[in-house]
Amino acid sequence: MHRQNKYQSRKRGKKKKTDNGLLALKLKPKADAGLKKVFSSIGVPKKSAFKPDPFQLKALSAIKKADCLVTAPTGAGKTWIAEKAIAEIHAKHGKSWYASPLKALSNSKYHEFSAIFGADNVGILTGDRKENPDAPIIVGTTEILRNQLYDAMHSGESLSADLVILDEAHFLGDEERGVVWEEIMIYLPSRIPLLLLSATIGNAHQIAGWLLSIRSKKCIVIEEKKRPVPLFPLFLHPSGKLLPLVTQNAKKRNVTIYKKVSDYLNQKNPPLIAHPRKLPPFGQIMRVLDKYNLLPAIFFLKSRADCDNALKLCTEDLIIDQNRQDRRIRLSRRIEDLTAKNSRIKTHRQLRFIKHFAIGSHHSGQLPAWKLLLEILMTEGLLNVIFATSTVAAGVNFPARTIVFLNSDRFNGKEFLPLNSTEFHQMTGRAGRRGMDNIGFAVAIPGKFMDIRLIAKLIKSSPSDVTSQIRINFSMTLNLLVSYAPDQIEDLLKRSFASYLIAKRKKGSDQIYKNDDKFLWQDFMRHFNFLIKTGYAVKNGELTDDGIWASHLRVDQPLMIAEGFRLGLFPVSDPALLAAIMASFVSEQKSDEKIDNKLIPKKLLTAFANIEKNLSPFAKRLADKGFEVRPLFLRPALTIYAWAIGQPWEKVVSVSKMEEGDLAMLVLRTADHLRHIRALRKVFPRAAATSEKSIELIMREPVIIDYKLL
C-alpha cells in the first residue's frame, strides 16, 4: 500500500503542536512574489468565432479515408470531431453509433446531439434507457454496442452503421471493462470506419498497428499534446502561502521542485496543515483560493466519507458579498428549477451546503439525480467547490479553474496505488475551462497521503501505455460458439491486442500473455470443455438448445442463472420475488451480515434457500474447475424485495445497509439482469413476462432520473 510522510499523533496542549512540528491553526492567504505575473493572466478569454484546431481538421480528413485514433488532453475538443464526423454521415443519410463507457456520459451526449441534429434523429441505448432505437444516430454504452455485434454475428448480418465512434478509447486498458472495447474492435466489420477518441496515451501508434493487422485498413493517429488551457501547478504551504510547485527549464525541458517547496519537504519536522488523522480546514483553504481568484475548484479526496465530511468544514460563506449577489440569486433560482419535481432532492440533507456555501459532495454513494444536479450547477459556473473522489475525473464533464490534490495515490477497488501519468493527467484535465479560463491550476496540499515529489514528477511525465485486458468468460464463449466453429474462434483470438503485443514482443504487456502466447485459446478450451460436460455444447463445437438461449444471458454469472432456469428454481410467477432473487446474483459484497430470520418474509427465505441449496452442486463443479463463483447473499435479495413491494426508499436504505448511490446501482444492475431474462421470451415466456413486471416495480424514483433536468 502506497502511503508516505506518516506523522505521529498530536500532543494535547494549548499550542496544539505535533511531534513533527506546529499544526497550522489559521491559514493566512499569501502568495509568492513569483506568482504575480501568473495570477495577472487569470481571466476569461475574449469571445471570438470558433476556429477548429489543426488536429481537429486532420482527424476529420482522416476518418473519411481510414480508421482514426485521436489522442488529446481532456477538454481539447474531441467531441467536436465526433459531432462533425456524425454530421457528414447524417448528410449522406447514413447511420452513426457513438459509444461511451458511462451511462451518465451517454445521457449527456444524447441530449447534446439531440439539440444539434434534432430529437427525431437521435436515439439512446444504455440498458436503463431505450429511446428511438432505429434513429440514424445512436448514442449508448460500449456494452450495448458489443451486444449488438454479438446479435449481428448470430444472425449473419452486419451491424447497421456507417460510422462507429468509441469515446474514452483508453478504456481498452481498463482492468475490469477493457475486454469490451477490445471485443468491439475485433468484431466490428472493417467496412465500418472506426473513430477512436482517447485521452493521451503512450502507445497510440502500437494500437493503430494492431488495428491495421486485424482490420486490413490503415488507422491514422492524430496526436495533440498541447492543452487547450495552460496548466500551472501550485503548492499550498501550511501557513496559507501559495507557491509555485515546480520550476521549469525551457532549454533543458526538465522540471525541478521550486526551492521553497523543496526546503519545506527537506525539513525534519515540517509544519502540518492538519492533524494526520483529520481533514484539513477546507473553509480556510477556500478562502486562500478565493482571494487569488482560483475558484471554482474540484478537490479530489480519497473517500466518499471525506467528501461528505469536507462540507462540514466549510463554514465561511464565500458568495454573500455584494459583488456576487447576482450569482447567489441565480444559484437559488436554478436550484428551485432543478428540484421542483423531485421532493427527495429538494429535501436532501446536503442541499443547504449548496444554497449557502455553493459547495457540494460528488461520489458514487450519492443518488444519480443528486450527482446530476451538482454536475449541472458546476457546468453552469454556479458552484465554488465540489469535493469528489477520483472517479469523477473519468467521463463526467464539469471542469473548474482549479483542481486540488490531497492524495498522490488512488484506490483501484482493491488497494491504494500511486497515481500513474494517465490518472494524473485525467484529473488535471479538469483544470481550466475552455472558453472560460485563460489558465488552469493544480494545487498540491501536503499531508499524510501526499507524495509531493511524485506529483512534481507526473507533471511532465509521458502518458502511460495501454495494454490488453482481454480475458475469456462464459458469456463470450457462448456467444462466439453461436456464430463460429472452434477453429475459427482460435483464429479470432489470435487477432487480440494481447497476441499482437506478444508478437511484437512489446515490453510491459500483461504478464499472463508474456508467458504463454496460447493462453487465450487454452482458456477458451477450458470454458468450452466445461460447457460440453454440463450439456450446453457438444464436442463438434455446436451449442445445444440450452447453450443457445443461455448465450443471451450477457451477465456476470450466466451459467449459474442458466442452471437455475434448467432446474426450474426461479419464482417465475412473482415479480417482486424474482427481482429479489436476481439481486443476489448481481451483488458484489464480500460478506453477508447475519439477518434475523424473523425480519425476512417466509416466501423470500424459502425461495432463497431453494436456490442456494439446489445450485450448490453446480457451483461446486465450477469451483472445482477453477472458475470464479460468487456466493449468493440474502441481504441484497431482502433489500430489493422491500423496494419491489413498495416500501419507502428511506426504509429500504436502512434495510440495505448501503449508501444511497450503491443501492441505486444494485437496483439498476438487477433491472439489467431482468432485461436479459426478458429476452428469453421464446423459451421461458412466463419468466420473461414476469421479469417485465419486476422491472416496472423497481425502476422508479429516486433510482431513475428525470432527464428533463438536462
From TrEMBL:
Start and end residues of each stretch annotated as Disordered: 1-20
Annotated InterPro entries: DEAD/DEAH_box_helicase_dom, Helicase_ATP-bd, Helicase_C-like, P-loop_NTPase, RNA-DNA_Helicase, Ski2/MTR4_C
GO CC annotation, single: Ski complex
SMART domains noted in UniProt: DEXDc, DSHCT, HELICc
Pfam families on file: DEAD, DSHCT
Domain Helicase ATP-binding: from-to ranges: 59-219
Top-level taxon of origin: Bacteria
Keywords, ordered alphabetically: ATP-binding, Helicase, Hydrolase, Nucleotide-binding
Gene Ontology biological process terms from the UniProt entry: nuclear-transcribed mRNA catabolic process, 3'-5' exonucleolytic nonsense-mediated decay
GO molecular function: ATP binding; helicase activity; hydrolase activity; nucleic acid binding
Family annotation (PROSITE patterns): HELICASE_ATP_BIND_1 (PS51192)
Composition bias, Basic residues: 1-17
Recorded coiled-coil stretches: none
Protein name per UniProt: DEAD/DEAH box helicase
Organism: Candidatus Desulfaltia bathyphila
